[in-house]
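Researcher: Next entry in the queue.
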Amino acid sequence: MAKKGAAAKLWNRSTVLMIIIILLGFGTVYARLFYLQVFQAEDLQKRAIEQQLHDTTVSAKRGSIYDAGGNVLAQSITVWNVVLAPANFKKDDEAGRRVVAEGLAKILGLDKDDILKKTYEDSYYVVLKNKVETKTRNQILEFEDKIYKENKISNVINMIEDYKRYYTHDNFAGPVLGFVGSDSQGLSGIEYQYDAELNGSSGRIVVAQDAHNQPLPYQYEQKVEASNGSDLILTIDENIQSIMEKYVRETIKEFNVKNRGCAIMMHVKTGAILGFACEGAFDPNDPFEISDKNEQAKIDQLKGKEKAEAETKALNKQWRNKGVSDTYVPGSVFKIVPASAVLSEGLVKEDTTYHCEGAYKPYDGADAISCWSSAGHGIQTLEEALCNSCNPAFMQIGVDQLGREKFYEYYVAFGFSEKTGIDLPGESDDVFFNKDDGVCGMDLMDIAVASFGQNFKITPIQMLTATAAIANKGKLMQPYVVQQVVDSNGNVLKNTEPTVKRQVISESVAKEMCGMLERNAKYGGAKNGYVAGYRIGGKTGTSQKIVDEDGKETNDYIASFCGIAPCDDPEIALLCYFDTPDPEINYYGSAVAGPCLRNIFNEVLPYLGVEKVFADDEKAQIEISIKNYSEMTVDEAKKAIEEDGLNYKIVGSGKKVTAQNPQPYSSVPSEGTVVLYTDNKRLDKVKVPDFNGCSIDDVNYLAAESELNLVIVGSSVGETQSFAKSQDIAAGKEVEPYSVVTVIFNQDNRIM
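Model: Structure for this entry, 752 residues:
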């Protein structure tokens, strides 16, 4: 009995122990299942989907950028990503792997051994090369066809459609357009500013795959279409931009400008930017190539970290939009602001004059500040002071008439204390005197030098916008470069409307200022911007830099010229600005920037349909498009020529005109001469004189002596301070008598 009781107890204990073990075992399993199903369910589902599905991104096509006339400036062209599917090779096909590796290496310019290693990967998606163009794609298609026919190899090479950014005119408007990175993301310029609008949304192709990573049939594939980006239509006109870039480049070359230059043109009534030339520009198709060859040569001589830092600095410099991101000391161009202020405040009467003895002390005990004219300008009116660009006169305006509060009030009103809000990235703030006291911490010396545009910094776009306000009847506009955002279906998503920020000065004061600026361009220090018939107004600037781009003290200068046209009803404002021209050549705004502005206006204004209106003293500079007189009788030709206000010279004894010079439809100056040939007799050719350095009177005399028709650019008739700078027909060349030669004049002065 005892033995039986002991056995029962042992059995009971064993049973309990087994139950405990079973409960613990299954409890652990159930606990684990509960944990996985409740706490890790989401993660496990995600991992399962990743194993069961293959997800491929489909790139969206980035929107195009067009100029104001609909010309393509930037677009995304179709390219292909070359992808290998090594899992589709037969396991024992060693020879086939080598054939594919060798062939693709040759086409793609890649290492054969690297491709061969990739053929052994257990994958259907191994990227070999991105963004290959059509020529390379066609070579790969031919290669695929070849290896199928000769080696029975298929489905191991795939080409997935993608897009590559292409800029149609290379370095055209580079700093404005900007560029994109390898992932088609905007990195600078408009590409960066409007990246969200241009970029669109990528699509996806999701394919189900089995346990061996093999794609399941087509019905298990799902495709989410990419949504292409929107297009941008700019306010910039391709033709205007080309003209501006041409003359900015020429000026940089002629005056050996060290630190680039720019020109910006604005429609004054809307704020639309018509052209924005910022040289030396880079090519957005290859933004990491340094465009300045001299800079590249210097970098090539460096090594290691020093070379890398120099390359980075050079690239950032060429990408930087100088007209928006750089600040500069404006110099005498800024004088239009205090001039507008004293007129607005009613501080200028009929008998108000300013005295210049060649220097001026802003207050007792101060050091005298010199005028650019050491002899002084004597007694002068406000208009004369502006045309003379007289520093002492403007110090008197700032210190004695306006004072600190009024000076700063107009500084703010004209928009210098805030960013313009132009839709380009990297716009800088002004650098002005201490503003901690709530108004502006300027002392009398600060006011004195600020009155002629020194010792503070603004951006070129701020200076242009302020000038445009004077041209726009006193209304300050917000500048912009994008007119419309249009989706891929042609729907306009955004249309930029002109924005008036405020009325800065009255319409009557603005009109008076426009008249002063016109007379300054015709008779004063801005004569190098003059174009007969176009009523151009302007102000020059020659500002001394305080520090250079590296923060070191310097004696370098900035030459600038701000102009408006036509002054009776202004349409456009233009700023030309050159940073550090060679002082051995010339550094004055009138000499460096003036001709650039004049040449741009001379081509852009007729393109915009602005008609020439000549004053009485400009009649001699009217140009007439002559008719085709061939086949007319001599009497008919004489009458037609006389009606056009021209002279004629008959050569031969025939009764009909058989040839003429100048040629039909060419431009001839008013009262010029047309030669009519009536038979085979011809006049002897004449040699073109060397007009370089001659006064306008001497050029007229030489042209008449040589029997040439003369077109004058850059000077008014009777001008005594302008001298011939260049001519379109080389000196010494033999031409037909009364051929038209154009002589360009520049004013020889050192007006700041």
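Model: Residues 262 and 278 are 4 Å apart (CA to CA).
Researcher: Noted, moving on.
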